[in-house]
Structure formats: structure tokens, C-alpha cells
Design a protein that fits this description.
Blueprint (H helix, E strand, L loop, with lengths): L7 H18 L5 E2 L1 H9 L5 E6 L8 E7 L2 E7 L10 E2 H4 L14 E5 L2 E5 L1 H19 L4 E5 L5 H15 L4 E3 L6 H11 L16 E5 L3 H4 L1 H14 L2 E6 L1 E2 L1 H5 L2 E4 L5 H14 L5 H7 E5 L19 E3 L1 H7 L5 H8 L3 H12 L5 E5 L1 H4 L4 H15 L8 E4 L6 H9 L13 H11 L14 H10 L4 E5 L3 H4 L3 H9 L4 E6 L11 E4 L8 E4 L4 E5 L12 H11 L13 H9 L13 H6 L3 E2 L2 E2 L2 E2 L28 E5 L15 E6 L15 H6 L5 E3 L1 H7 L6 E5 L4 E7 L5 E2 L3 E5 L27 E7 L1
Parallel strand pairs: 8-9, 8-18, 10-11, 10-16, 11-13, 14-26, 16-17, 18-19, 19-20, 27-32, 28-30
Antiparallel strand pairs: 1-5, 2-3, 3-4, 6-7, 6-20, 12-31, 14-15, 21-22, 22-23, 24-25, 27-33, 28-32, 29-30, 29-33
Length: about 775
């Protein structure tokens, strides 16, 4: 148990680092200083402190939870965590305040004659299992589905995958990480043949430049942004904000460059053009470690088209790639991107300078994109052309939005096409899963079925007749939500919802199951930098609240699959993890043993001979490199990464005479995702009580709109009325509006478009056409 410091000297060193970051954090709001945390905790008296990860975003901050009389009464940053070094953002610091909410789900509820009736949990689980079996018997195994989450723990995601793919034999499993990280996954796989970043957060201490691509890190990942600000103060490191609107990140950066939505594709190609034409390409690195490839173009926008995973790849040579880039000179791209020739050349010169180390950071702006896979590929192209990759302070880094979107969704594989190792289309991967799961190999289907958007379309069509959602709130988070609420209300589909609090999704459920909150159970998360973090149960949950993993196991047993789920209630987390890590044995993805996870605040995989691999694909740091070269991109058969030829293509829906504005959606520092937790934390709710629509002052003046006026935002799909915000938190460009999506009472996702990247299947929440009316 992680309860004491190994030495006072180490403690003082860690606190000194935390203090330096805290000073940098004072440059923008949203960070709770280490000293404030200590004073608040001291006011609670003698407490027992237990370690774990934060419940919210994918940064994976280490926390210490103060326990008194069986209740969580305080939270502070863990000074031993290499992620946050004692610091927390406002969400992390206040996280436990929501679990005592008066509307907490404490018992199962079953809808009877239109009314929810409190029901013993065992009886509710009996009903879930019988309905699932009955649906399969009547309509086939592909008529049932599970929709899980990047907030699910590794054991929760693992047993969901085992139930659906190994026991029932359907690939009808997907997760809400499809809405946020699928393009990152597809980008890593197509370029490197292996998922997840090759670097780690320690890059921050080495980089000379941080370039953020469409990413408001000051509000989305404030602790990491504070570490960047510390390096800005300490070493003169520079932050360049490349975005479609001015945000708190913009104002704290050294330079802010704004671009027209969707044209990031063109600007990235223009940077590559400049790198090559100015002789800045690392020719030796490219010749030894890269291939050039052309993919398909005009591939559609995911609007009711069929599901396909593969992109046709055609090898090309360097000269063909160079010729392709002639259409992306800074002069040509500046005309439609609204990025000046000077700024394009500035960005290229940063990447092209062999004496400057550069880290690129991005999150939803690049991933929630109808060409999200391409956009990820293009940033990798920049780093590969310059050889600035897989080295301390040099690399592309995709940040995640959920605490275990990496560990559970991506590593465990809770996507329709994934297995705990590899993909369902690969016979070798199916055979490995069948062996570990002890099921017939033929039971695991070889073809994917429904990704998230298509899954809920299938509910609407009537193809899916039973769906179980866990740890997610799709009736607030899905694009074009107005379509799916009536679909889930149909009697033809039996809906099961596992959650901690009532949500718009639980409002349409036939059965509501009371889930344990994260410190009320043991669990394991995996964060953005491949760091696996374990925690033990800290407090008892109220009523009959139960971990999602155990409810899944109980349903599996009731369906007759008990022999496949031989786990004990007391130790199921550890037993599942020991089974799961068999999938990842070896130097390329070896997971740390439980004893290491319990001892440390987190361990980065690959974990080889007792040591974390901080930089992958670089033989100096990665023991899996065995081709005798300095770099080995071992995800690809020839050990080389791919530089992709990817063109600019316009968005599927653009402003026109009837709908003259771009709509962009996102988050704010006070709230997390659909707000089901943070809106129940009084201090956060008071700080940001409702969503709003940001307008440029010129547009507001043209429409006669002032701050606080109610504005109706209308698309071809739906409408939402919100108060106006002008020159407050953020500033959209003229012709663009922005709204956060945390507010279930002001449903901006009724308005958004459900187009998606045809390769990754991730929807584009950042771009659609709307009109506005003053109400």
C-alpha cells in the first residue's frame, strides 16, 4: 500500500518541483495551488490518505484522497506522481464532492407501466440477463449491443469485451472513445502500425517549442499546460497556439495563429512543402526509416454509408510526394486557410530548425474531424520529415480526454473491430483471444459490426433490440442527438443503463443499474502517456451500488457463461488484470505486474525487466528495437514508418447563404464532458451554471445581440436556445460560433452533424453550418 514517502529528501525535491509548477499555473485560472490543497486538507484534521488517479480527463493526475469515518472528505495532488507533481485542476480537486449528491442512484430501478420501481439488484440483473438471452434467441446474437466508455476501468472493459465477443459471439461492442480518440488510433496505426504515443510527459521538460493543434490545453488539460508554462518561465520555451478561435490557451501562448475550419490539412501540407523546399528535411532519417504512401481520396463523410476499416495504400516515391506538395505552397494555402504566408513559414521554420526540439500536442480539434485520420497522419509527416520523433523533447503527442480512453478503450480494445490484442479481422489475434478466454476460435466473429454512430443508427432502424450502456451518457454526447432520443424510447429496443447519477440517457432506460463511483471500488486506468495506474477501494458506496465489472460478470453467469467468468467478488479486479496482461507479454507492450502498480503512482508500458520504456521506437531507450538501426518502427513489417500523401478536402457541410455560421463545440475548465458529475459539484456549478453561445463582437452587433441575450442556434437537424457570450471566455472568429456541450438542459448536440471520418469513424463535432436568431 502506497502510504509513506521513501525519504524526506525525495519529498522535498518533489514538492519543490510542484511549487515551481504552481507558480507557473498562476498565469491562468483553473489550477488549485499545492499550498491551498494542503491548507484545506489540514482543516479536516487527522485523515487516512489513499492514492489513486483522478476520475476525470486523460492526463491521469495522481491524487491522494483523505478518508475520515469511512467518508472521502478531502483530495489533494499526489506529490510523488510524475504526472502532476502535487498539482490539481479545479475539477480534480473537487472531484469527490459529487458522490453525496441527493439524486445519487443507490438501488436498481425497473420501469413498470411507465414508472420506475425500486428493485433488488439481483432481481434487476436477472431481468437484464433474461432479456438479453431472449433477444438473442428471437433475433440473433447481433441484435444485442453494449456501449461502454473511456471512463470504464481496464477490468470493466475487459469483461465487457469477453462477454460480447468471447461468450455471446458478436462484435456489437463499441465505446464513447469512438467520439474522441478513434482518429488518433487510426492515425497511429496507419503511420506506425502501433497505437499510442511514442513519447511521454517528460518531453515537456526537454522541448524548446510546444505547438498545439486545435487544442485549448489551458482548459482541457490544465495541469500539463501549467508544466509547459513552467518551462516557458524557467527555460524560455515557446508555446504556439494554432486554432480556429482565441482561447485562454491563446492568451498564454507566445504566438496565436488562427485558421479557417478544415484547412488545417492544407496548412500541414504547406509546412511539409516548406521543410522540403528549404532543405530542412532530415534526409538520412527519412531514407533509413520511412516509406512514402498514397491513400484513397474522395472517401465520403460517413453519412449513412457502409462500415469499412481499410484504406487502400499505394506506395509512391519521394519525388511523387514532392510533386503532390506543389499544390500546397504557402502562397496558395494562405488564400483559403486565412493563415498568412508569414505564419506558415514561421511554423515550418520551427519544425525545420535542427537545433530546436518540438512537441506537437492535439486532442479533439484534430480528432473530431471528418478527415481526422488524415490530419493525424499529416502531423506525423512533419515530425518524420525532420526526424523529430521518439526522442526526449521531440515528438507528436495525441492527448486523450477520458481517464482510461487509452488503457481501456485502446489497450483492452472495447471497439467493435478490436480485441485485447489486435483486431478481429486478424486470425492470429482471434486465436490468441480464444486461447486466453477458453472459447472456441470460431465463436469470435471475423468482421466488425457497428461503430458508435452506426450502432445508434441501428437502434433507430430496429436492427439492435437490446442495448446496455455503461459509464456514458450518449443522449447528451452523440452528434445529432435529436435523432437518437426517439430511437431509444421505442418499445422495440430494451435499454439498460449503468450509471452513478440520473442522466437523459437513464431517462429512457427500461432498467437502471446503480454503479459504484471510482473510489468506491478498486480499479485500473491507463492515461495518455501509456501510464497504468491502480487503486484500491477507499470507501463503501451507498445502497446496492456495485462495480460495473461485477454487474457484467453476474449477467454473464445468469446467461450460462459462468465457466468463462470464474472471478471472485473480492478479488475480481486483480484476477481479471492477471488474465488480461497475458495478451501483452513481451517487449513491445508488456504490462507492469500488480505489485509494481500498487507500489508506484503509475507505470508506463512497455514495462521491460522492471523498467518503463519512456520513448518507443528509439533503440537508445526501447529494448523492443532489434533491427540494428537507431530507430525501429516495429509496428510495420519492414520497421519503417509511413509518410502519407493526404490532400485537403472541404468539410461536408459549410456555411452558406441560409446557414452562414460555422458551429464549433467543446468543453470548459469547470466541467467535464456531459456534466453529469461536475454539475453536481456546487462550486463548479456556481462558477459555470449553464452553457452559452460565443459570438464575435461584429456578428453580435450585426444581429443586435448583447451579452446574456437569448440566441437560437439552428441547423438542418435541430435547434438550441442559449445565452450569448461576447468577449468573455473565448473569442470565435467572425462567422463562427462556439458552444460547450456539458449542459443537458441546453442541448447543443441536437444541432451538430453526424458526419464522421470514414477511416476512424469518429464524428466531427467541430464543424457544421448554422444560423442564429435573437430570441
Amino acid at each position: 500500500m502506497y502510504t509513506s514517502l521513501s525519504s524526506r529528501r525525495l519529498f522535498i525535491k518533489q514538492m519543490a518541483k510542484a511549487a515551481a509548477i504552481t507558480a507557473a499555473a498562476g498565469m491562468f485560472p483553473g489550477i488549485i495551488f499545492a499550498g491551498e490543497q494542503e491548507r484545506a486538507a489540514a482543516a479536516q484534521g487527522d485523515l487516512e490518505w489513499k492514492k489513486g488517479p483522478c476520475r476525470f480527463c486523460g492526463v491521469g493526475c495522481g491524487i491522494l484522497v483523505g478518508i475520515k469515518d469511512g467518508k472521502a472528505v478531502a483530495v489533494k495532488g499526489d506529490p510523488r506522481s510524475k504526472v502532476n507533481k502535487g498539482l490539481l485542476c479545479v475539477k480534480g480537486y473537487h472531484q469527490t464532492m459529487c458522490i453525496q449528491s441527493k439524486d445519487r442512484l443507490t438501488h436498481a430501478l425497473v420501469k413498470k407501466n411507465g414508472t420506475y420501481v425500486k428493485t433488488p439488484l439481483d432481481e434487476a440483473l436477472d431481468l437484464v440477463a433474461s432479456k438479453m438471452k431472449e433477444t438473442i434467441e428471437k433475433h440473433g446474437k447481433d441484435s444485442v449491443a453494449m456501449y461502454t466508455s473511456g471512463q470504464s476501468t481496464i477490468p470493466e472493459g475487459y469483461v465487457a469485451s469477453k462477454l460480447m465477443k468471447g461468450a455471446i459471439g458478436t462484435n456489437n461492442l463499441d465505446c464513447n472513445a469512438r467520439l474522441c480518440m478513434a482518429s488518433a488510433v487510426a492515425g497511429f496505426l496507419t503511420t506506425f502500425g502501433a497505437d499510442e504515443p511514442m513519447g511521454c510527459y517528460e518531453d515537456i521538460e526537454h522541448a524548446d517549442y510546444f505547438i498545439t493543434w486545435g487544442n485549448n490545453m489551458a482548459e482541457m488539460h490544465p495541469v500539463l499546460f501549467s508544466r509547459m508554462l513552467e518551462q516557458k518561465q524557467r527555460r524560455g520555451a515557446k508555446i504556439v497556439d494554432f486554432a480556429t478561435r482565441t482561447t485562454r490557451s491563446s492568451t498564454a501562448s507566445d504566438r496565436s495563429i488562427l485558421f479557417e475550419p478544415q484547412t488545417d490539412l492544407a496548412v500541414a501540407n504547406a509546412i511539409c512543402y516548406e521543410i522540403i523546399e528549404n532543405g530542412w528535411m532530415n534526409k538520412s532519417f527519412v531514407e533509413k526509416h520511412c516509406n512514402f504512401t498514397k491513400g484513397l481520396t474522395n472517401i465520403g463523410y460517413g453519412l449513412e454509408d457502409k462500415f469499412a476499416f481499410k484504406d487502400k495504400a499505394t506506395p509512391i516515391d519521394f519525388e511523387a510526394y514532392r510533386e503532390f506538395l506543389q499544390d500546397y505552397t504557402p502562397e496558395k494555402v494562405a488564400k483559403y486557410s486565412k493563415v498568412s504566408v508569414q505564419d506558415i513559414k514561421y511554423l515550418a521554420a520551427i519544425y525545420g530548425d535542427p537545433n530546436k526540439k518540438v512537441v506537437s500536442y492535439w486532442c479533439m480539434g484534430m480528432n473530431q474531424h471528418t478527415r481526422g485520420t488524415w490530419m493525424n497522419n499529416l502531423v506525423y509527416n512533419i515530425h518524420l520529415l525532420t526526424g523529430k520523433i521518439s526522442q526526449p523533447g521531440n515528438g507528436p503527442f495525441s492527448l486523450t480526454g477520458q481517464p482510461s480512453a487509452c488503457g481501456t478503450a485502446r489497450e483492452v480494445g472495447t471497439f467493435t473491430h478490436k480485441l485485447p490484442k489486435g483486431v478481429v479481422t486478424n486470425e492470429k489475434h482471434r486465436r490468441l483471444a480464444a486461447k486466453i478466454w477458453k472459447v472456441p476460435y470460431e465463436r469470435i466473429p471475423a468482421k466488425p459490426t457497428y461503430h458508435t454512430t452506426e450502432m445508434f443508427r441501428a437502434v433507430d432502424r430496429g436492427d439492435i433490440k437490446f442495448i446496455w450502456t455503461q459509464v456514458t451518457n450518449p443522449l447528451v454526447s452523440l452528434p445529432k442527438t435529436s435523432r437518437y432520443r426517439p430511437a431509444l424510447e421505442k418499445e422495440s429496443c430494451f435499454v439498460v443503463v449503468s450509471d452513478v447519477f440520473p442522466t437523459p440517457t437513464s431517462d429512457v432506460a427500461d432498467v437502471i443499474l446503480p454503479a459504484s463511483w471510482h473510489i468506491e471500488k478498486s480499479g485500473i486506468y491507463g492515461n495518455s502517456e501509456r501510464r497504468t495506474q491502480h487503486w484500491d477501494q477507499m470507501i463503501e458506496g451507498p445502497g446496492e451500488t456495485t462495480p460495473d465489472a461485477w454487474m457484467t460478470i453476474e449477467v454473464a453467469k445468469r446467461m450460462g457463461f459462468g465457466d468463462l467468468f470464474p472471478y471472485s467478488r473480492e478479488n475480481h479486479v486483480e484476477e481479471i488484470y492477471e488474465e488480461y496482461i497475458q495478451f501483452h507479454e513481451g517487449k513491445k507492450h508488456g504490462m507492469a505486474p500488480l505489485k509494481a502498480l500498487k507500489r508506484k503512482s503509475g507505470v508506463i508500458w512497455p514495462y521491460v525487466e522492471g523498467k518503463s520504456t519512456l520513448w518507443r521506437f528509439n533503440a537508445e531507450y526501447d529494448p523492443a528495437c532489434d533491427n540494428g538501426k537507431a530507430f525501429h518502427f516495429y509496428g510495420k513489417p519492414d520497421g519503417k514508418a509511413v509518410i502519407w500523401q493526404r490532400p485537403f478536402e472541404p468539410a461536408p457541410e459549410k456555411p452558406d447563404a441560409e446557414y452562414p455560421f460555422w458551429l464549433n463545440t467543446g468543453r470548459v475548465v469547470e466541467h467535464w464532458h456531459t456534466g453529469s458529475m461536475t454539475r453536481r459539484i456546487p462550486v463548479l456549478h456556481q462558477a459555470m451554471p449553464n452553457a452559452y453561445i460565443e459570438l464575435h463582437p461584429d456578428d453580435a452587433m450585426d444581429y443586435g445581440i448583447s451579452n446574456g441575450d437569448m440566441v437560437k442556434v439552428i441547423s438542418k437537424r435541430g435547434a438550441c436556445t442559449m445565452p450569448a457570450s461576447i468577449n468573455e471566455r473565448g473569442l470565435p472568429t467572425k462567422g463562427q460560433v462556439f458552444a460547450p456541450f456539458f449542459d443537458e438542459e441546453l442541448m447543443i448536440n441536437d444541432v451538430t452533424l453526424d458526419a464522421f471520418c470514414p477511416i476512424s469513424k469518429e464524428p466531427d463535432f467541430k464543424k457544421c453550418a448554422v444560423k442564429i436568431e435573437k430570441v
